[in-house]
Each structure stands twice: as C-alpha cells, then as structure tokens.
Amino acid sequence: MRISFCIILILLVSQFGLAQDALLPLYEGEPPNALPNDLIETRDTSNTVRIGKVINPSIEVYLPAQTYATGQAVIICPGGGYRILAYTHEGTDVAKMLNGHGIAGIVLKYRLPEDASNKEPHKTPLMDAQQAIRLVRKHAEKWNIDPTQVGILGFSAGGHLAATAATHFDSTSRPSFAALIYPVISMQDSLTHRGSRRNLLGESPSSELIHYYSNELQVSADTPPTFLVHSSDDRAVDVGNSLAMYQALQQQGITSSMHIYPYGGHGYGLAVDKELLSSWPLELVEWIKWLN
Asked: Mind telling me which Gene3D superfamilies this protein's record contains (predicted)?
C-alpha cells in the first residue's frame, strides 16, 4: 500500500506539475574559478531535459505547502558523468516528489568541469555545491526551512558530488545529511566510473587528486548522516562504491542506512515503474523525517 501510494503521488505530480517557487543564481557577479569563454549552455529535451556546458549555475527551488512543511530541505545534484546534468529525471522530478512529503527540494544546476570555462576544472562542482548549501541557509527563514536541516542528495556522478560535499566542507557548508543514489564514490582504479573520473580529474590525474576525491577515504567523525541506494546488477557504477562508503561510515560511527536492491541497473531515477525498486524514495523520506 505504501509503495502504491508513492507511485500514484509521483505520477500525479509528473502529470500536473508543480511550479518552482524561486530560481536564483548561485553567485552575484562572476562565479569563482571561471575562465572567459564562448560556451553556450545546451539543453536537450528530446526525452528528459539534459543540460550541458553550464556557465551560470543556479538553484531551482520547490517548496511544499507551509501547512505540512517539515522544515527540512534537500539540495539535489543530478547525475550525468560530470559531462551533462540529467536535470528532470534526477532533479526536478525528485524535488516535486519531496514536496509531496513536506520537504523542500532545491535542484542544483552546477557547473561541469570543462577545461574551456574553468581555471581548475575539478574544483568547480564542489564550489557550486558548497555555495548552494550556504545560499539555502541564507534564505531559510523566508522559505520556511530550518537551517540545521539542509541536506544534499545526488545521483551517479551527482552522487559523487554530494559525497564530496559531505566529506569536504567548512563551518558554513557542511550538509546536515547526505543521500547518495547509485553513486560514484571512489576515484580509485578498482572502483571508479572511468568517464566520471576522466571528466572531473582529466586523463592522467595525480595520486593526490585520486585520493582527495575518493570519498570513502575522506569520511571522518564529522561526516553527516548518510543514506545510500544501489543495485547489485549496476554495470555502470560498481555497487562496491556504496559498499566502501558504508563501511567507512560505519568505521567512523556515522548514522547511515544502505539499501541494496537485487535489480535495477543504473540511472533509474525515482524508479516509478520498477516494482520493489520504487520503494527507495519512500525509504529516503522516512529516513529524513526520522533524522528531524
């Protein structure tokens, strides 16, 4: 019954839609680490919206009705191998689903690590994720959000970005919790998704960069509570990524929950039509509310 309700809710929201409450640039003026360039943002709408060559990063804010808002918010990082952003499938659809459960959903359109538009390409996605956390907290009162309940969620390479934000932060940018959905976690040869690593770190990254962005090696006692979802038959991003992250979290005593499904492969988003797999969004919602 719970799974059926979730599927009905997602289908209704997808059909009738929810309007965004705000669309804000991440930065006032020139974004940091940017190079002058002549790139033009691309937007492929042939199936779902896929965005490339992001020059002007932003957040798209979806807020639940105040009468049943939990005060919690999730910044959503779409995946796409650090090459494009699967913006609706792993972004706005997820924000709308969260709204249906009283949680604010904020979709992050982050810059991709392209040589033509970044001084140091590998630094830019994390800069944007950290700035999104700060910006949501800045507007928390206006948006009826508890600034101590701002989490981050990511899919695939967006999951790597969310995991990086959860393990590399300062006092202003630590997320309150993290949710990593079929995530790339490691940059090590034995686990990494080669395309994501190449796009983020280049063809021949140094051992120092590989270590820095292998997030299973960066978990500390300050890492926030973390939720993981993966499928054991994922042929794109090895399930070992999530297993390694969960083990690291457990070793540090971090509150964590991992859900490994026997099927699904990769890139299923909300998995609306995937039977058992479609339970993961409700598992996530219940976990987030349990943290509150």
From this structure: alpha/beta hydrolase
Nearest to 181 by CA among 149, 163, 154: 154
- Determine the structural domain holding residue 86 and report its residue range: 2-291
Q: pTM of this prediction?
A: 0.93
Sign of CA dihedral 151, 101, 62, 121: positive
Beta-carbon count within 10 A of 243 CB: 18
pLDDT per residue over 206-239, tens digit each? 999 999 999 999 999 999 999 999 999 999 999 9
The count of structural domains within the chain is: 1
Residue type, position 33, single letter: N
Work out the number of other CB atoms within 10 angstroms of the CB of residue 31. 20
* Domain harbouring 118, CATH code: 3.40.50.1820
Among 112, 217, 118, 202, smallest CA distance to 164 is for: 217
The tokens for 37 are 């360039």
Place of tokens 């959000």: 145
